[in-house]
Specification:
The complex is a heterodimer of chains A (about 475) and B (about 290). By secondary structure, chain A is α+β, with helices and mostly antiparallel strands. Chain A has 15 helices and 9 strands. Chain A has 3 domains: about 80 residues, Thrombin, subunit H (Beta Barrel), CATH 2.40.10; about 140 residues, no CATH class; about 130 residues, Cytochrome c-like domain (Cytochrome Bc1 Complex, Chain D, domain 2). In chain B, strands 8-14-13-10-11 form a 5-stranded mixed sheet, with no helix packed on it. In chain B, strands 15-5-17-18 form a 4-stranded antiparallel sheet, with no helix packed on it. The chains are: A alpha+beta (about 475), B mainly beta (about 290).
């Protein structure tokens, strides 16, 4: 008993000590590096001499959760406004400055500081002692030798949105989606379906056409209403500005993941461990590394800018009107006739929805028992059925449950059929006449209300006399 | 017993203390790091410091460059495995009235009678200096399917070339592409679509050919290679290929085949192109390299 107590005391003190000693300085979190990056030779990950590798470039462009990098190229609302210096007049330790708002930017009403993005003062944060949002005129104070020149880019009161997005994301999202948005937070392994891994830049449920990315509005909708039938809850009780901040942070993480992915794509075919191993048959490792060093130093800066431009283009386009799916005809009114036509199309050779979703819509079509190969690696999957780009088993929806993950409004189902479900095997049927898509929507919405096969509805049951009904049974 | 209690008390007070000194996960910001700390934001300029980094693959048309051409053949060396048909006419498979109407060969390895290997990609990964820019023909490239087989099985395409997807089958297909630099396409193709409502355009060059699949008929497979220069070819049924007007000098060609282990028959095939001449290139494809 005594030794027990002593042990407990010791454990208590040791526990206390360890908490006091370790403090909180180890709590810094980091963005994970993808397995694909890890499949590269170490030199490609970390860089060769001065030339940075993938990990260094990721840090350079995106930072870590404690220090986020706001790469102006990316279409993320960082908060505040980006602006260019028009006039700069130093006056002792202060300076009078006139700013012009960047394209599509509006000055914040109140502003207290300026981040200098380009020019001689790049990287500095300067305080504003006065600010006029109407004219863009400001007084900068405590310059400490910093000078600005006309044409320099600055960010006025920037960063608040992405900061708040990061804090909220870590609180509400990261335990499933992971710090880096890799869909691998601590709880992820217990969930089916798995939480989305943002790093492909692919989101399943969008109102944008098949070739476009997810729009801000789509992400906001998922945050507000959750994804029925999954663990993704609704965050409807959060404030609008909190939700929009999370959307921006999720977009930031997606772009970070895509950046990593695209960069690895440039390197993988020549500098993955596997590739180098096969190259060693007729090349020397030192030569391969030398060639890599040259590639990293000479070509990669251009590649990085190119990837930035692609990210900018595709994510901006996702919010454009052209990307939005707009049915060319209004919804065909729901009717017996329309549902019948929808069912005909569902079973037709033209669309063959039944191939995956099953003849009766139970999500059990022949394709769900077929063994597939991973289309990239050509390795057969362990279990039969359809797989998505995240390599998760992704069975077609059972349409009887009335639970539609992307939303149950008719327009939601229209979009699912029109654009397909991105990342999954569900293809786009954009070339199907819109009227026909509406018929299928009407049919699909009616499936949950179909009677079970063999069941007779209560109302329609024949009111046969009990004696007569019992007679044949007795006779058997 | 009393002592035992005090032990628990020590533990409990330790826990309390740790809370008060501590790493507040949520609520107030913790000192030194953690999830709830407001991060710093560092603003970066839009373009990298070097600014005018030359654009990738910038093959500029220079008028006076001596050119030559290559002509060659990919020849299998060693014992060629007997390839079974992928689908035999009359096989009891899905959509058999269409997909098993005729024999469909296993196109992963097509060897001619004298050992020439078809469907091998021979190309330069990057545009050479002084090379011609590639221009996409105005006419779309026709990519067809019949008896649940894609036609052609392999093709090199200039970037920005429109690919029109047709179907000559009375069953539904979808065309699902798996590129690494372009956007993936996954779209249904209606039966007997002879007009080609689905169009695919590759905006970027790929480093290796990309797989094209149909999810209704998972055995269907084709390979597309979009390039931003004209120096790539696929071997024909006899295993022959030719690439014209290559700037003179030594170039390193990629030789890629779907059935080769790791897909590369040669990662770097050095070929010297002599001005005004046609260089003969014999490529040996060791049968030991096959992975079927």
């Amino acid at each position: 008993m005594k030794s027990h107590v002593a042990w407990l005391k010791r454990a208590g003190i040791a526990g206390l000590l360890s908490i006091v000693v370790s403090g909180c300085s180890d709590n810094n979190s980091s963005f994970s590096i993808s397995d694909r990056t890890r499949s590269l030779i170490p030199e490609a990950q970390t860089g060769v001499s001065e030339a940075p590798g993938v990990v260094k470039l990721l840090d350079e462009k995106f930072g870590d959760p404690q220090t986020l990098k706001a790469w102006s190229k990316l279409p993320v609302q960082w908060g505040g406004a980006s602006a260019k210096v028009e006039v700069f007049a130093a006056d002792g330790a202060d300076a009078k400055v006139k700013f012009v708002a960047g394209e599509g930017q509006t000055f914040p009403e109140k502003a207290t500081f300026v981040n200098v993005v380009t020019g001689a003062g790049a990287g500095r944060t300067l305080q504003l002692s006065s600010w006029d949002a109407a004219t863009g005129e400001a007084v900068l104070t405590g310059l400490g030798g910093a000078t600005l020149a006309a044409g320099d880019t600055c960010s006025i009161d920037g960063g608040a949105v992405i900061q708040s997005g990061r804090v909220l994301y870590m609180r509400h999202c990261s335990h499933c989606h992971g710090t880096a948005g890799d869909g691998n937070g601590p709880t992820a392994q217990y969930l089916y379906p798995r939480p989305r891994d943002y790093r492909h830049g692919v989101f399943k449920f969008t109102s944008t056409n098949d070739m476009s990315k997810v729009s801000r509005e789509d992400l906001l909708r998922v945050l507000r209403y959750g994804i029925p039938g999954t663990y993704m809850p609704s965050f409807l009780l959060m404030k609008d500005e909190e939700l929009t901040a999370i959307v921006e942070y999720v977009r930031f993480l997606s772009m970070r993941g895509e950046f990593e992915r695209k960069l690895v794509n440039e390197l993988a075919s020549d500098y993955s461990e596997e590739a180098v191993e096969s190259r060693l048959k007729d090349e020397q490792r030192a030569d391969i590394v030398g060639e890599l060093a040259k590639f990293l130093a000479e070509d990669v800066p251009g590649v990085v800018d190119g990837i930035g431009a692609e990210l900018e283009e595709s994510w901006v386009a996702a919010d454009s009107d052209e990307a939005k799916i707009v049915p060319s005809v209004p919804r065909v009114p729901d009717s017996e006739e329309s549902r019948r036509r929808g069912r005909e199309l569902y079973l037709s050779k033209t669309l063959n929805c039944a191939d995956c979703h099953g003849i009766d819509g139970a999500g059990n079509g022949p394709q769900t028992v077929a063994f597939e190969k991973n289309p990239i690696t050509n390795v057969p999957y362990d279990e039969p059925g359809l797989h998505d780009v995240w390599d998760n088993l992704n069975q077609p929806r059972n349409l009887h449950t009335g639970i539609f993950r992307g939303g149950r409004r008719p327009i939601d189902l229209f979009c699912r059929i029109h654009a397909g479900i991105k990342g999954s095997r569900m293809p786009s049927f954009k070339n199907t006449p819109h009227e026909d898509i509406w018929h299928i929507v009407n049919y699909v919405l009616s499936i949950p209300f179909e009677p079970e096969p063999g069941a007779t509805g209560v109302a329609s049951a024949p009111a046969a006399p009990a004696t007569e009904a019992a007679a044949p049974a007795a006779g058997e | 017993m009393l002592k035992f209690r005090s032990g628990i008390l020590t533990l409990a007070s330790g826990a309390m203390l740790s809370l008060s000194v501590g790493c507040t996960e949520y609520g107030q910001p913790a000192v030194g790091g953690g999830a709830s700390v407001v991060p710093q934001v560092v603003f970066l300029a839009s373009e990298s410091e070097s600014g005018d980094a030359e654009s990738a693959g910038g093959a500029e048309a220079t008028s006076e460059v001596a050119v030559g051409s290559i002509r060659g053949r990919v020849q299998i060396v060693g014992s060629v495995p007997e390839m079974k048909l992928l689908v035999k006419a009359g096989d009891d498979i899905k959509d058999k009235e269409v997909c098993a109407a005729v024999d469909v060969p296993d196109e992963r390895l097509m060897v001619s009678n004298d050992g020439g290997v078809a469907n091998v990609f021979v190309y330069l990964q990057k545009a050479p200096k002084g090379g011609r820019p590639v221009t996409a023909p105005a006419e779309p490239f026709v990519f067809d399917q019949k008896n649940c087989r894609f036609y052609p099985h392999t093709v090199v395409l200039p970037v920005n070339q429109t690919v029109r997807v047709l179907s000559n089958d009375s069953v539904a297909h979808n065309t699902h592409t798996y590129p690494s630099k372009n956007n993936s396409v996954n779209s249904g193709v209606a039966p007997m679509d002879r007009e080609g409502k689905l169009e695919i355009v590759y905006r970027k060059a790929e480093a290796v050919p990309l797989a094209v699949k149909c999810d209704y008929h998972t055995w269907m497979n084709a390979w597309h290679l979009p390039l931003d220069h004209p120096y790539g070819a696929v071997t024909n049924e006899a295993g022959d290929f030719a690439i014209a007007d290559i700037p003179a000098g030594t170039h390193s060609f990629v030789v890629w085949h779907e059935a080769a282990d790791g897909n590369f028959v040669q990662r770097k095939l050095a070929v010297e192109v002599k001005p005004g001449e046609e260089t003969e290139v014999k490529i040996e494809y060791p049968a030991a390299l096959l992975k079927l």
